[in-house]
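Worked example (supplementary).
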Amino acid sequence: MGNEQLSPEFYNALTECIDALMAGERTLDDCLAAYPQFASRLKPDLQMVLLTQRLKSPRLKTNQLDALEYQLRGRMMRKPSRQFRKVIGFPVPAVSRTAAAILILFLVLIGSGGGVVAASADSNPGDDLYPVKRAWESVIIAFYNLTGVPEDIWVQLAETRLTEVRILSENSQLTVTAMQDLREATERAIDEANPETRVEMGPFLQSVQKTLSNQLDLSGEHAGVAREILSKIDPVIQSLGTNSIRPLPPANDDPTRRETQSPEETSTTTTFASATPSPVLTVAPTTMVTETQTATEEPTATILPTETSTPRFPPTVTRTPTATPTGTLPPTSTSIPTASWTPLPTPTRGSVVIPQSNVTLEPTFPGSTYVPRPSATWYPWAQATFDSAYITQTAEYDAIMTRTAEAPTPSP
Amino acid sequence: MIFAAYAPYLFLCWRGIQDKNAIPCRHKTGVSVLGRVEEEGLIRSAKQGNADAFATLYRANVQKIFRYIFYRISDQQAAEDLTGDVFMRALEGINRYDDRGKPFIAWLYTIAHSRVVDHYRKSQRRPNESDIESVSLSVDPNLDSALMRRHAAQKLRQAITELTDDQQQVVILRFVERQPINQVAQIMGKKPNAIKALQHRALRSLARRLDRAGFDVEEILSGMS
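After joint prediction of all chains, the assembly is encoded as:
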């Protein structure tokens, strides 16, 4: 008997009978009949199973269940939840570790990426960050393709390529690739230009022409690319017409005398800006667009502020409201205190004066401050900074000019 | 680009919200059979502080825990208190819970077992076999069968409490809760063959105790049928 109780067969038989009894599939007699060799020991065990199952089990009542659940919920409310974890005194949304890691990685990439892009702004071909600069330009172009391409974006790109070519040439590091990039950018700027922006490209094209013709020491393949560029831009420059481009000043041009020029004199000048350097004036060949700034950092540019056919330089006197954020002409032909402002054709109030880029502003009146025009960059906030400073300076200038106008007019 | 980087985080948050909304509203009935996948989702939500999820787990397992504790200490009032204590402790430790393939009830049984042991230790009251044998339980042959059965039931409950811890768990899980051998083995952390042998020893011990108390199990069973 004892051996039967210890045998695995007995345990298996007991387990099988217990499961069958609890499921109601067999009766006690059925189980004893199924295992007659174990019947004497199976019977008392199976009887206890039946008796145990007939015990009435107590249950918690509904109100007891509810009361305990209420206590549990109250404890959960008081317990600091994993959803919000106070960090440094203020709650921080708790996220899973994976989500937190992804979020942190994203923020790090964004922060470091922004710094890298900013650092790459002044990079040139051959620098480590130059690919970042070009990639960022592609991002800007892609963005503008969605929101609308500014009219002068291609000119800005071409000006950037031109600047890079100049810098590389100065450092004797000019490459054919940089020249080819300049050619492609220039061609793109020409192709994408509309009739209005085409005229405004004049100063830039002149700058390219001047740079490639005289300023750079090109040879071999570099010269070949330069000729291709010149052959592309020469017809465009000629087709722009005589009224759209002011001539390049002579080398000994005195900026203080330029104020005496008249608009007629200026507008009739049709001489194509030859490659005559003007070491005095450091005016960038920019168009007088107040909305956008297309200036390039051109310390040796010789082109005077263009007097385009746009109303910015009207050949006739027009009155301009003083409230506009533009400069106003003095009422007389009194010389303008600063050599930086555009020479006024006629001493009448109302003409719009657009400051030149990269002009060395001399603080010639109280309160003025030097506001260097930023170079062409991809950072519009630099333009906004300049514009705000220009507005302030213009207001001060206008106030001074108003007081000057009220003074007795000196005899010419 | 920004959305693409945030997409994984948003997906994880959505997953959490989805689990929260997937809580079955069956807790009001007091009885609920939770599937394994459903239970895992509730546990995950409860770890994140979802009160409804934990309430559902509570409702699905509270009666089992109560019966388990009651049969082990044979004191309904104390069993009610200990049941509440078990779920309070489960709530406190839910964040550390790791199923490791075992059902949630197995973890609750573990907590309940430790609470019962603590209860015995504090009360310093656990009847042993010698005490039972010395008690003469008079059984009047003329006693009403219903009353006889009531006495037998009381004696049986008392006998269960006098078993060893493992034998108690096997009797309660196998014969009161009707859990299969493999499930009981998983809960108790033993092999199925060990459970088979354990159940036999527990049943034999119960039978011996009732016989010593003067109860005829066959007669009681025949009166019940």
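Two points are worth noting when inspecting this output. The first helix of chain A runs from residue 2 to 6. Chain A touches chain B through 49 residues (CB under 8 Å).
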